[in-house]
Design goal:
The protein is an alpha/beta fold. The protein has a domain at 41-69 and 84-224 and 233-237: P-loop containing nucleotide triphosphate hydrolases (Rossmann fold, 3-Layer(aba) Sandwich), CATH 3.40.50.300. It is built from 6 helices and 10 strands. Strands 6-7-8-3-9-10 form a 6-stranded mixed sheet. Strand 9 (223-228) and strand 10 (231-237) form a beta hairpin. The longest helix has 14 residues, at 187-200.
Length: 260
């Protein structure tokens, strides 16, 4: 079984995937997209998932985020077992526990920045004495307190992505998953977004993972997981980063052949 290294140290994983297999088609047309993927995500670190096109990154992200269910295996997200559930049950877990950041922002063009965040609060049924204030504070946290009443058409690409991040954090999800968050951005805006995700990942109650092809993002990562042909082939930790909650010498940044 191919797997990413199991998280160590004092932090309990917020997401645990074990031997995830995803198959599409039947008979002679059957295709195995994921071939026994195991990994953990713990709070307090920014994990990057990297691999070539067709390696299974998007499929894995969709399963971890409860958009798809695996053909077999186990997925525990914030204490919920997600494999084999109906689409309605997956949607409920996703609504309560997962925040997504998409490459294309997916903002409602007829809503202001604060209204886009309010929609996310409403969808998650996040109870707040003052939801407008909650949404405003989320935008202030990503540096957009001065743009709360601005429509997406008047925002730069970097500002749109920061609204998307604020929206993903609405309702305090346990896991934040970002799909190529810098792909549509120039270097300056890409840097700002990665610095923001790095800061978000410091939250001890939240795990953050980003799928990326962008090698400019590598030095922001606490951990880099590499996937090829549906298998995890590398799990590298920053040379100065020990697993959250652990003490002692740092984990070496050395690519491991973890296929078993």
């Amino acid at each position: 079984m191919a797997k990413a290294g199991r998280a160590s140290g004092g932090q309990r994983p917020l997401l645990e995937a074990r031997n995830i297999v995803k198959t599409i088609g039947t008979g002679a047309g059957e295709l195995q997209i994921l071939k026994g993927v195991s990994m953990d995500l713990v709070p307090g670190e920014l994990t990057l998932l990297m691999g070539p096109s067709g390696s299974g990154k998007t499929t894995l992200l969709s399963i971890l985020g409860c958009i798809l269910t695996a053909t077999s295996g186990e997925l525990h997200l914030a204490g919920h077992q997600a494999v084999g559930l109906s689409s309605e049950a997956l949607a409920e877990i996703r609504r309560l526990h997962v925040g997504f950041v998409f490459q294309s922002y997916n903002l409602f063009p007829t809503l202001t920045a604060v209204e886009n965040v309010l929609v996310a609060l409403d969808v998650r049924d996040a109870r707040s004495a003052d939801p407008i204030q909650t949404a405003t504070e989320a935008l202030k946290a990503v540096g957009l307190g001065h743009r709360i009443n601005t429509y997406p058409s008047k925002l730069s690409g970097g500002e749109k992505q920061r609204v998307a991040i604020a929206r993903s954090l609405a309702g305090r999800p346990s896991v934040v998953l970002a799909d190529e968050p810098t792909a549509a951005l120039d270097s300056e805006n890409g840097k700002a977004v990665m610095e923001l995700l790095k800061e978000v990942a410091k939250d001890p109650t939240r795990a953050v993972m980003a799928v990326t092809h962008d090698h400019r993002t590598l030095h922001y990562a606490d951990r880099i997981i590499t996937i090829e042909d549906g298998r995890i082939v590398g799990d590298d930790r920053s040379p100065n980063k020990s697993p959250p909650g652990s003490e002692g010498s740092p984990h070496p940044s050395k690519k491991k052949n973890v296929a078993a």
